[in-house]
Every structure is written in structure tokens, then in C-alpha cells.
Amino acid sequence: MVRKILYLLLMLVPLPVAAQHMNANIGVTQPSRNLFTYASESAKGKPVLLQPLYWVKTLIDSSAVATVDRNYIEQPKPAWAIEARSSLNQSTLKMETTWEDPVDGNMNLWAKSKNGLSTSAGLWLGYRGYGFGYSKEVGQTSGSTLSIGAMGGSFGINLRISSYNSDMPDIYIDGVKLTSYDEDDDRLEDPIKVRTLFLDGYYMLNGKHFSYAAAYDNSLIQKRSAGSIVVGGMYCHSRADYSADSNWLLTALMEGVGKVKFSQGSIGAGYAYNWVPARGWLVSAMAMPMLTFYNHTTKYVYDCELVNPNVEDWDTLSEDEILEWVFDPDTKIMTVDETAETSNNKVKLNFDARLSVVYNFDRWYLRVYGHYNRFRYGNDFVSGRVTDWTANASLGFRF
Length: 399
What we know:
This protein has helices spanning 2-12, 15-26, 35-43, 51-63, 213-216, 248-253, 319-326, and strands at 73-74, 80-99, 107-114, 118-127, 130-138, 143-151, 155-166, 170-173, 176-179, 192-204, 221-222, 226-241, 257-275, 281-307, 332-344, 348-361, 364-378, 382-398. The chain is an alpha+beta fold. Helix 3 (35-43) runs antiparallel to helix 4. It is elongated and about 85 Å long. The relative contact order is 0.13.
């Protein structure tokens, strides 16, 4: 009789589904099989136009838990999640240059533009770790961030595009501060425009017991403490533009450089650990040194010229005439003759660090996390550094 019942169940329930439920009950890793074939089989019999959607859905549902130990990692039944997000962020772009003077000695100048301590609010929507979010800065600062993420059982991929305007840089000459973002009231007429793209990806060598998704999008739940060696890569592209005519003095101070673009590609290895101090709680930390093997910088150099519609050639004027026209209301100083100079820079060392605290309760979850990135660019004449740190709090609901 038992054999007949077992035979009947196998006829009614597809073998992959039966195996999945058996693994969930006994807490062992699912046997290796072709997930693409399984997704194709699951889509059969569905409406033709909906088969691609069923194929993708089945692949996402299965890939996240295909090789995990259910004693360590759990997949919540609700597949969708929505989050309300609030964050504190500070992005800083530091630009450095050296004025060479054989008589009085070299003069070191650097300008630091930042978005202040900005506060943003936004939403995130996702399915099984695949989702996107948008947040907007609130208060005195202006800026926005678009994020797209994809996380599976052993990997995580994140894309983040942020932009902000800085209307007053901190400017130092030989260590003496001349202007201050936090103190000066005379702001730039045309703010410095900074736009940055971050793309990073991680692979966990111990995906069987350690879940990156449990710490950063809650599509999985870590039930027991575990750690993993992490390998990853990161791409950063940043652009700073302060070449407006009204910023001619800043451009002149930076030896004619009014716009900078740089791209970097880095790879690294580190360690991540998920600590489960009590049921529902998770504390996750990751640290990964990274080696920048691709480091490409383009700087745009400008000339600063006096322009007046009534003056054709300033070189033909006497000193008295020049002084007269300089103070004419129609005379303006403009940045002209843009020239692009590209350089490939040396290999550099960067660093990526993350910390997350999570609490799961029923369909709701609360997550607080922070991350820090640092990038250096440039050559011996014009160089700089981009630093970015974010503290994020999210309240999510699964449905």
C-alpha cells in the first residue's frame, strides 16, 4: 500500500518540486540540476505570451536557494517587498594641484566640493532580491540617487547613480583655508555639478551557509551565523564640472582645469560575516581591499579671457584703455578654448566596507546599514580623491 501511495504522489507531483519540498523539510542542499531546464518545463502549458515571464519567475525563485543549506538560510514565502528608505550621505570630491614657482617655491592648492550632510527619502520595490529604488534629497541640499540591484544565493550586483550640486567648495592654499562650504554665505552663481556612477558585484565562496541578500535586501533570512570569503569587482565613473564662466577664478586656480572625468575598475577579495545573536536578528559586516587596475582620467583645460562686444583685440589697447574697458559693465571673463587631456594613471589601492543590522518580524523587517567607498585619480599635476559614505535606514514589508 505504501508503495502505491508513493507511486501515485510521484505521478501527480513533478520530481523537482517534490525534491525541493523534501530538502526544505530535512534541511540539506538540493542536488545539482539544470535550473534553465526546470524553468522551461515550468513555463510549459502557460499562455504563450506569459511563458517568458513564468520562465524568469521560476529561474529567480529557484536560483536563490538551489544550493543553500536550509538549516542556515531561509527563503520567505512572500516574493515581493517594498521599502521606505531614509539615508544620510556625504559625498566629497577633492581636487589638488601644484603651482610651480622656482623663485618663491611651489604652492599647493586643493579644492574640496561636497553635498554637505544630506538627508534623502525614497522607495524601493523588488522581487526576490531583484529591484530598483529612487531617493531624493530633502532640506537645503539638492541631489538624487537611483539604485538597481540583483541578489541571488551567492552573488550580489548593485548599480547606483547619484548626482548633486555644490555651491561653495572648501579651498586651501598651502594648508590655509580661504573659503568654506559650511561658513561662507557668498555662494557660487553656477554650482559645481558632480555626478557619480557606482557598479559593484560580489561573489560569496560559502554561498551554501552565508547569504549576502539576507543582509542587504532581505529576500533571504540568515538563521545561523556564518562567514564567507568574498571576491568582487567595482567600477566607478565620476564627473565634476565647474567650467561655467562665472567660475573662472576657480578654473584659473586649478591651472585652467574646469572639468574632470575619471573611470576606475577595481577587483579585490575580503571577508564577510553574518552574526545571528537571536531569532530575527542579523549583524553583517564586510571589508574588502581592492586593487585598481583600470584608472583613466580626462581633464578639460580652458583659457580665461576678457570679452567685451565693443573690443575686437585687447592686445592693441594701451594700459589705460585696458583698465577702462576692464571696468566696463559689458566686460566679462569667460572660459574658452576647451582642450581635453587624457591620461592612464598608476595602479592604486582602494577600499570597500559595509555594515548592516537587520531585524525580521513576520512580514515586516527593519534594516540599518552603512557603506564607505574611496577612489583616487589623476597624475602628478592634477589629482584628487572621491569619498562617499552612506547610512541608510529601511522599513520593509513583504507581500
